[in-house]
């Protein structure tokens, strides 16, 4: 009956049937109802053969329903419309693998890798490729080949050559902040000095090389796992204003919580910060305020900059709350927590008191909202630009604004200060709902809290809000620029297995393509101080309350 329905739709004029069928097809695709998605997208591509997305989804659905010949034809058609579609290349490789065609399998898998925006390593665990898993070319494409033991320097040189080639091919504009001659000089300098370097020094030189490019998405990650894994300190650092503090620690080091860091070893903290900056790709100084404390949580960094002779114990001189000076040797160990977590683990001792303010209530939840009846306000925290397993961002946005329309809501606070990105294309659903809501999209009723961690896809959201809504920004400046080089295009070095990312897109969220602002600045500045944090107060939300109270009086 459903197949008959799709056939009947062929006889309905295109402008009448297109949107309902497209929405049906999208639902089937998202719900993995592959038979229905296959029928729907087959019909859609018959009536609209011009859009690569429809052909790609037709191909995917055909492959999932074992229509391999049709899938190959549809993937080919996708590539004729979008020659850079890495996912279509991978899909072709997979179909050929299922057909037992090793030659075309490896051809298309290599094409997907060369495209530079598709991680072919997923083929390692994809059983469709089991018949080619041991082939030397497959091992090379999926970066599983290793330099034989005993050839350490050659292996590191191969990794450097691989890294440089990937950057020069895949970065949208790797000389946007560094002259080509300077880049080439630094690469050659590493090659010359590499035989005399320790493994840690080589890793540091790779980190510094990519940091020279000058953007926050191009970097070599500190190694968390493997033979080169950095050791972690049982401390969490944070910048309150311009001073570095220990915001949390394991119970063993509870006496350090709330202390201001003055020295590491004999090196003043100002020199530590200056030296560490050269290892960290960043978009602006607010971005550094976010990622520097993360980096300082790894003891290897102190050895790299010469602040410590060993990564096993790091000596800190701190100023305690009563202004007493204290020097403590802190033992490092294997990484036992997510270094990118917004806050310290629950069993650590935190500077904050027992009461949890609204902005710390549920930081790992991608998005949620709460009605504040005494203020007739909705507080919405948006922490990650990702769909949840049980709810899309688009559906959440509809639910949020339905609540606003149906209830006594005089203001909306959108808190994106903890949001460091995700998928920028998912922002559209939220922006569309907001633009339609005249009840809230009015100056003085819509507020967006931003901060140092507002980055990547969240930065794009901030730019969209700035251009398309009447929002008032509150808090700190953003951790990125309106126009920035970004996208997490990840790589793995073939021998050391070090990982990192290369910016493959230039996002232009500014008012114009030559918008050179360093960040989006708040209309209402509200920096989080040590006193605010310790006393469980939120200066950003308090600034909004004060603004609304003053507006009501006027």
How would you describe what is shown here?
There is one protein chain. The chain is α+β, with helices and mostly antiparallel strands and 554 residues long. It has three domains: 2-141, Serine Threonine Protein Phosphatase 5, Tetratricopeptide repeat, CATH 1.25.40.10; 235-350, PDZ domain (Pdz3 Domain, Roll), CATH 2.30.42; 358-482 and 517-553, 2-enoyl-CoA Hydratase, Chain A, domain 1 (Alpha-Beta Complex), CATH 3.90.226.10. The protein contains 19 helices and 18 strands. It has helices spanning 2-9, 14-30, 34-47, 52-64, 68-81, 86-98, 102-115, 136-141, 152-170, 180-193, 199-211, 269-277, 285-295, 299-304, 393-406, 427-436, 457-468, 530-534, 539-553, and strands at residues 219-220, 235-240, 243-249, 260-264, 267-268, 313-319, 325-331, 349-350, 367-372, 377-382, 411-415, 446-450, 472-475, 483-486, 489-492, 499-502, 505-508, 524-525. The strands form five sheets. The protein has a six-stranded mixed beta sheet, sandwiched between helices. Strands 5-4-6-7 form a four-stranded antiparallel beta sheet. Strands 1-16-15 form a three-stranded antiparallel beta sheet. Helix 1 runs parallel beside helix 3 and helix 2 (14-30) packs antiparallel against helix 3 (34-47).
């Amino acid at each position: 009956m459903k197949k008959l329905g799709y056939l009947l739709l062929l006889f309905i004029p295109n402008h009448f049937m297109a949107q309902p069928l497209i929405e049906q097809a999208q639902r089937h695709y998202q719900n993995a109802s592959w038979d229905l998605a296959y029928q729907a997208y087959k019909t859609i591509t018959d009536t609209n053969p011009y859009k690569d997305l429809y052909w790609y989804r037709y191909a995917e659905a055909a492959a999932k329903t074992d229509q391999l010949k049709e899938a190959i034809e549809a993937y080919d058609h996708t590539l004729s419309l979008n020659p850079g579609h890495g996912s279509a290349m991978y899909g072709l490789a997979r179909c050929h693998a299922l057909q037992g065609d090793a030659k075309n399998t490896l051809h298309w898998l290599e094409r997907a890798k060369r495209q530079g925006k598709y991680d072919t390593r997923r083929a390692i665990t994809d059983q469709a490729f089991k018949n080619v898993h041991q082939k030397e070319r497959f091992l090379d494409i999926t970066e599983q080949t290793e330099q034989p033991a005993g050839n350490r320097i050659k292996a590191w040189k191969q990794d450097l050559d691989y890294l440089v080639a990937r950057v020069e091919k895949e970065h949208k504009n790797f000389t946007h902040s560094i002259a080509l001659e300077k880049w080439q000089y630094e690469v050659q300098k590493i090659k010359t000095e590499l035989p005399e370097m320790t493994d840690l020094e080589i890793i540091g030189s790779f980190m510094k090389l990519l940091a020279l490019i000058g953007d926050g998405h191009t970097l070599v990650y500190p190694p968390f796992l493997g033979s080169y894994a950095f050791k972690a300190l049982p401390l969490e650092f944070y910048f309150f204003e311009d001073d570095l503090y220990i915001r949390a620690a394991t119970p063993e080091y509870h006496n350090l919580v709330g202390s201001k860091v003055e020295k590491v070893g004999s090196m003043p903290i100002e020199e530590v910060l200056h030296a560490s900056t050269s290892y960290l790709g960043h978009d602006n100084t607010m971005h550094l305020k976010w990622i520097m404390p993360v980096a300082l949580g790894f003891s290897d960094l102190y050895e790299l900059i010469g602040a410590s002779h060993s990564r096993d114990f790091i000596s800190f001189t701190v100023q305690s709350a009563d202004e007493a000076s204290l020097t403590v040797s802190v033992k490092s160990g294997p990484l036992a927590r997510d270094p990118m977590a917004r806050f310290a683990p629950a069993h650590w001792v935190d500077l904050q008191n027992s009461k949890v303010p609204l902005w710390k209530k549920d930081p790992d939840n991608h998005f949620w909202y709460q009605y504040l009846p005494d203020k007739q306000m909705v507080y919405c925290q948006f922490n990650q630009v990702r769909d949840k397993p049980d709810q899309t961002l688009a559906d959440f946005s509809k639910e949020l604004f339905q609540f606003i329309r149906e209830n006594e809501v005089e203001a909306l606070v959108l808190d994106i200060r903890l949001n460091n990105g995700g998928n920028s294309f998912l922002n559209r659903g939220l922006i569309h709902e907001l633009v339609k809501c005249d009840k809230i999209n009015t100056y003085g009723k819509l507020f967006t809290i931003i901060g140092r961690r507002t980055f990547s896809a969240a930065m794009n959201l901030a730019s969209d809000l700035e251009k398309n809504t009447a929002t008032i920004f509150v808090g700190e400046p953003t951790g990125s620029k309106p126009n920035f080089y970004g996208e997490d295009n990840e790589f793995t070095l073939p021998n050391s297995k070090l990982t990192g990312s290369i910016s493959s897109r230039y996002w232009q969220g500014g008012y114009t393509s030559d918008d050179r602002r360093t960040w989006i600045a708040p209309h209402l500045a509200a920096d989080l101080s040590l006193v605010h944090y310790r006393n469980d107060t939120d200066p950003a939300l308090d600034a909004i309350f004060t603004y609304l109270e003053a507006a009501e009086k006027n």
